[in-house]
Design a protein that fits this description.
With about 170 residues, the chain is an alpha/beta fold. The protein has a seven-stranded mixed beta sheet, with helices on both faces. Helix content is about 30%, strand content about 25%. This is O-acetyl-ADP-ribose deacetylase (Regulator of RNase III).
């Protein structure tokens, strides 16, 4: 069992050596253009290109809530496009948030398999807690249970938050 490590920094520049996977949440309507995906697109074109093709060809593939697309972007570096958001959040925020916790849990289970196969660590911002509208106190236990409890090293990057916090299952 591992613990989730919290650091101040940029999730698009994951710390450490060896294979690394940058995980993030995508929506199920093919939208790419707000939030963390903008930072990804500043570094690499492949995650957006592959996501858009995956969405476009969705009648012929597994695109949908709970699906994961692993995209190689550099030597030993991958981006996991995880479909765990139904639609997008309205400007008024009157509707329920678009995060789907059950889909996120399925994504994290699949991600665990990819990470184990590659002997990779997983790096992420606070997935699902931004534009997807999720609550971190509900998301963090999913990450702990699906990744860290299976021995996968997980680092969560916060821009501007204190460095070095470590969470464990409790």
């Amino acid at each position: 069992m591992s613990v989730i490590r919290y650091v101040r920094g940029d999730a698009t520049c994951p710390e450490g050596a060896g294979p690394r996977i940058i995980a993030h949440v995508c929506n199920d309507i093919g939208g790419w253009g707000r939030g963390f995906v903008l930072a990804l697109s500043r570094h690499w074109t492949q995650p957006e290109t592959r996501f858009r093709r995956w969405y476009h060809d969705r009648a012929e593939n597994d695109f949908g809530l709970g699906a994961v697309q692993l995209v190689p972007v550099d030597h030993d570096l991958f981006v996991a496009n995880m479909i765990a958001q139904h639609g997008i959040r309205s400007r008024t925020h009157a509707a329920a948030p678009p995060i789907r916790y059950d889909a996120l849990e399925r994504c994290l289970t699949t991600l665990t398999g990819h990470a184990a196969e590659l002997a990779a660590s997983v790096h992420m911002p606070r997935i699902g807690a931004g534009l997807a509208g999720g609550r971190w106190d509900e998301i963090e236990p999913l990450i702990q249970r699906q990744l860290a409890d299976h021995g996968i090293g997980v680092t969560v990057y916060d821009l501007g938050r204190a460095r070095g916090r470590v969470a464990s299952a409790g």
